[in-house]
């Protein structure tokens, strides 16, 4: 009986409290606070000294001073002076994760971007489809395929700028979505799914025959990530070919693995359009580097090498020389190269001349020793085919997992664990007129940074973690 009397009283008191002038004032204060915060502008404090994960590179063929850099977790960046200065050109769009960037070969001011990274790590973000700019990245228009989530590559038909093909990987953590090869004949207004495998299988790579764009090759990839594991591959992965500009497709099987396959990278070369290369994740007996000498109709295994590290799902891209049909580079922890069509594959140099974990490579069509590489640690350029590299330390694109703050005065400091860049420490402000500079940051611990905090009583003590929760202390 007591409980029955108390409950209505409690409800009445609660209602009265929630409707007091103080509560009403609190709602007004929230509105005022939101208005005040909206006037605060975000300011960049870096760091740019270590870069971040690069997903793709596009260079204007008519003006090699203009580059576009697709960043896995940092949008799209443009330079018009070969990397001396950069401008973010995609920050106003809903997606910050970029999988690929492509320039229209007839008009390089038309830029196509596929959002959602084309790797399958736990830390990757998804996208919301295809975007197009007709003015070199100044403005953008969303062009569909919003449910693709991860885009592997975009091809523009060199004969007709309105005809494009998209390799859509589809959602990583679920089935369905938009996955397969999509084609447009009207510049992206409408899309047709021209290659559909199933609800769990997308397409991670696609290439034109360099001598005949009616012929295309596509790499299907069956994969699914769960909280406990990545199912990287299955019976639906494989290589497909079209001879009618993508209207119909046939799976290629002669000489290819008979068991389940995982991620496949493709490469072609204008120096010999008969040649097609593939790096194929499969079982230990069948995995490796494959070559076709008849436009993909039959294949020969040349080598058992595939990309390693955290798994082929994180690499497996191929880039073939446009002038030497036997020269092919493979993205991996360290860049690999074959100079004899895959018979032998070795590190490019020692592999340690620059940051590891390579995802993108541009080969200068006029100078094969001039390469631009995209890694987990930023953008690099070489003029001697990898003997020496220079880093571009002016791209603030590091991917941070966790941040910690101290109580230092007059300016507090920040410690952050970054993807593949270790742990970085820097100030929130400085007394320099230039603001916070690269030289104001330092890296006390390498590997992959994770949780990092300052000691609440002594800011000179910092606790930092790397892979597998290994704890370190900085004093």
Task: Give a brief rundown of this model.
With 475 residues, the chain is mainly beta. The protein contains two helices and 36 strands. 7% of the residues lie in helices and 36% in strands.
Any overview of this molecule?
There is one protein chain. The chain is mainly beta and 475 residues long. It folds into two domains: 54-391, YVTN repeat-like/Quinoprotein amine dehydrogenase (Methylamine Dehydrogenase, Chain H), CATH 2.130.10.10; 400-474. Helices cover 7% and strands 36% of the residues. The protein contains two helices and 36 strands. It has helices at 2-18, 21-38; strands at 54-59, 67-71, 75-79, 87-88, 98-103, 111-115, 130-133, 141-142, 151-156, 164-168, 180-184, 192-195, 201-209, 212-225, 230-232, 238-242, 250-252, 264-268, 276-280, 288-292, 300-303, 318-320, 328-330, 336-338, 346-347, 358-363, 371-375, 378-382, 390-391, 400-405, 413-418, 422-427, 442-445, 452-454, 462-465, 471-474. The strands form nine sheets. Strands 13, 14, 15, 16 and 17 form a five-stranded antiparallel β-sheet that branches. A four-stranded antiparallel β-sheet has the order 1-2-3-4, with no helix packed on it. It has a four-stranded antiparallel β-sheet with strand order 5-6-7-8, with no helix packed on it. The termini are far apart.
């Amino acid at each position: 009986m007591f409980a029955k009397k108390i409950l209505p009283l409690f409800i009445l008191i609660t209602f009265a409290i929630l409707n007091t002038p103080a509560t009403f004032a609190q709602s007004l204060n929230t509105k005022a606070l939101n208005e005040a915060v909206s006037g605060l502008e975000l300011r960049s404090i870096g760091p740019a000294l270590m870069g971040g994960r690069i997903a793709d590179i596009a260079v204007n063929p008519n003006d090699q001073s203009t580059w576009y850099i697709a960043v896995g977790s940092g949008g799209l960046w443009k330079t018009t002076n070969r990397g001396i200065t950069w401008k973010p050109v995609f920050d106003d769009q809903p997606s910050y994760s970029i999988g690929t960037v492509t320039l229209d070969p007839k008009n390089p001011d038309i830029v196509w971007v596929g959002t959602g990274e084309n790797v399958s790590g736990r830390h990757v973000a998804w996208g919301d489809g295809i975007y197009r700019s007709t003015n070199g990245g100044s403005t953008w228009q969303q062009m569909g395929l919003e449910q693709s989530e991860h885009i592997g590559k975009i091809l523009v038909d060199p004969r007709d700028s309105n005809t494009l093909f998209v390799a859509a990987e589809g959602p990583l953590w679920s089935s369905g979505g938009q996955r397969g090869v999509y084609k447009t004949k009207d510049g992206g207004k409408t899309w047709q799914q021209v290659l559909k495998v199933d609800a769990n299988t997308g397409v991670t790579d696609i290439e034109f025959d360099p001598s005949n764009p009616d012929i295309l090759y596509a790499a299907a990839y069956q994969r699914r990530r769960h909280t406990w594991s990545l199912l990287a591959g299955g019976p639906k992965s494989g290589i497909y070919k079209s001879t009618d500009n993508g209207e119909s497709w046939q799976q290629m099987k002669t000489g290819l693995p008979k068991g389940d396959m995982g991620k496949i990278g493709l490469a072609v070369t204008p120096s010999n359009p008969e040649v097609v290369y593939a790096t194929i994740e499969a079982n230990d007996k069948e995995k490796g580097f494959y070559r076709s000498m008849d436009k993909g109709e039959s294949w020969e295994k040349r080598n058992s090498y595939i990309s390693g590290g955290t798994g082929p799902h994180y690499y497996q891209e191929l880039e073939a020389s446009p002038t030497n049909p036997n020269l092919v580079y493979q993205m991996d922890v360290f860049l690999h190269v074959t100079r004899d069509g895959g018979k032998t594959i070795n590190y490019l140099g020692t592999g340690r001349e620059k940051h590891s974990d390579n995802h993108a490579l541009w080969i200068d069509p006029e100078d094969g020793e001039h390469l631009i590489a995209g890694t987990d640690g930023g953008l690099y350029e070489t003029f001697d085919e990898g003997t020496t590299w220079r880093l571009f330390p002016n791209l603030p694109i590091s991917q941070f997992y966790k941040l910690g703050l101290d109580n230092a005065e007059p300016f507090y400091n920040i410690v952050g664990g970054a993807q593949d860049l270790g742990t970085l420490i820097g100030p929130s402000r400085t007394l320099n007129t230039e603001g916070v500079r690269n030289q104001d940051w330092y890296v006390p611990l390498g590997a992959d940074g994770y949780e990092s905090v300052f000691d609440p009583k002594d800011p000179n003590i910092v606790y930092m973690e790397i892979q597998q929760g290994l704890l370190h202390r900085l004093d």
